[in-house]
From TrEMBL:
GO terms for biological process: isoleucine biosynthetic process; L-leucine biosynthetic process; L-valine biosynthetic process. This is Branched-chain-amino-acid aminotransferase. GO terms for molecular function: L-isoleucine-2-oxoglutarate transaminase activity; L-leucine-2-oxoglutarate transaminase activity; L-valine-2-oxoglutarate transaminase activity. Its cofactor is pyridoxal 5'-phosphate.
Amino acid sequence: MDTIANAITIERAKTSKIDQVDFNNLAFGKVLTDHMLVCDYKNGAWETPKVVPYQPITLDPSAKIFHYGQSVFEGMKAYKDSEENVWLFRPLDNHKRINISSKRLAIPEIPEDYFMEGLKALLKVDEQWIPTSEGSSLYIRPFIFATGTGFHASPADEYKMIIACAPSGSYFAGKVKVLIEETYSRSANGGVGFAKAGGNYAGQFYPTQLAVEKGYNQVIWTDDNTHEYIEEAGAMNIFIRINDTLITSPTSDRILDGITRKSIIEIAKDENIPVEVRKITVSEVVEASKNGSLKEMFGAGTAAVISPISGFGYRNEEYDLPELENSYAALLKKRITDIQYNKVEDKFGWRYKL
Ligand code: PLP
Ligand code: COI
């Protein structure tokens, strides 16, 4: 571990943009910090990561990322507590997942110490960019893409990992309305839906645009085979509360194994909330909405945190969700963010000190 940590080089930016940033009014992922981590894969091995000033990169037009979409990414956050200590949340799970994604896209896996020590070196250099304003954090975006060249449709021989960071506020500006989709599919059995592959998101943009034109913020994807089962949303996993029970779909080939999702399942169980990880049909949710047993729906993800859903559309009908006084969404959001911002003891061992 020590060797790579000591080998990482740091080139500091000559000037900082930080004074131009309004930390009390942060959008999501718009302003990037002064530095980034770069790590290249060449000649069959990852080279030593470098912290460099944030800057554009130059790529050969035949780089395979442009033609064949070999690219994966992660989403993480760094949180500052009231004493200015910096925390990550389950970062080793992000490292594991980027390798799961990479493997599926025939991208070489990045060793844990390169990822973690590189990330830590970057965060130390850009530490003053981690916001302290309520509800804000430093969004961290590690990504790996094919820089190797040529039009042959086969895996590249060179790759680049970059970790870039953006001090960020909420992902959604207001209430979240979702459209339950049954024409388009996000993923299929045997496909890449479980991976954080760039192309999964590109494929969602057109159907999501159509939904946005109709007044929705996100699409809830159903299974590609029957379109009868709720799977996940474009940028978050989905939880549904019917009466007192919290339900979420099992992960599969088609669904991202969200770190927030699995944490929420554990916290909910700890709160003695009945949790069911099972397939749930759209008709069950529609029926529950009609008979009043559908109490809440919310999305869970790193960017989305816990985002309550105010209503959903399905087959040209609108279904509103009640506004609850004591929602599971509010309770679970408080519990998870209290752990992330080091406001409470972390009995699960999820917090990771920088
Ligand atoms: N599902 C999709 C498609 C996502 O992009 C994300 C975001 O990362 C999630 C779910 C939530 O995953 P996590 O909680 O690990 O951020
Ligand atoms: C995240 O929550 O970190 C994600 O990667 C979702 C993204 C599409 C913003």
